[in-house]
Specification:
7 helices, mainly alpha, 72% helix, 10% strand, three-stranded antiparallel sheet
């Protein structure tokens, strides 16, 4: 069995490049300012995802620290790295990489992006009277990276299914008598 990039070279190259764009977008989205809070016209606080996680660690808010760090930092990086391996490394149906792809495709629908956006909306609604909330480009870059990764995992999943089907047909061609 050949890797997806060997079997579908053009699509594989495009997927690899887009995965690298998603990884770059993730790095920018995590480190760039997400939003600014202006409280009582005197105090302004601009936060990034990284500064939020760091602040939770310093304040020893362990539960929130682990939830946000795992779902917003670790899992997206692991997902992109896994997708790069799935595209570029040979694997067979039922192997660890094949099972990983199925897990990514299944859990990808439950991405933390929606939870993250809802949390930001709740903050902005609750603080509407007390504070002014301004959204920055980091939120858009982070969201674009997550959405791009979701789309690429869908594309890779269907390309992999096609590859398995083609391999099965090549190994056992239909006979017509």
């Amino acid at each position: 069995m050949s890797s997806l990039i060997k079997r579908y070279t053009k699509q594989g190259i495009i997927i690899d490049l887009l995965l690298l764009v998603a990884l770059g977008g993730l790095v920018v989205g995590v480190t760039a300012p997400l939003l600014s809070l202006e409280k009582l016209y005197f105090f302004e606080n601009t936060v990034s995802l990284f500064s939020t996680v760091t602040g939770l660690f310093v304040q020893k808010e362990w539960f929130l620290f682990f939830i946000i760090a795992i779902f917003s930092l670790c899992i997206p990086i692991i997902k992109i790295a896994s997708l790069l391996l799935i595209v570029n490394v040979e694997y067979k149906k039922g192997s660890f990489l094949d099972k990983t792809l199925h897990v990514i495709e299944t859990l990808g629908k439950w991405s933390m992006l929606d939870v993250f956006v809802v949390a930001l909306l709740l903050v902005s609604v609750k603080l509407g009277v007390l504070a002014k909330v301004e959204v920055h480009y980091g939120l858009y870059v982070f969201a674009a990276s997550v959405l791009l990764t979701m789309g690429l995992s869908f594309w890779i999943y269907h390309l992999s299914k096609k590859n398995h089907r083609d391999e099965r047909l090549k190994a056992h061609p239909p006979t017509f008598t």
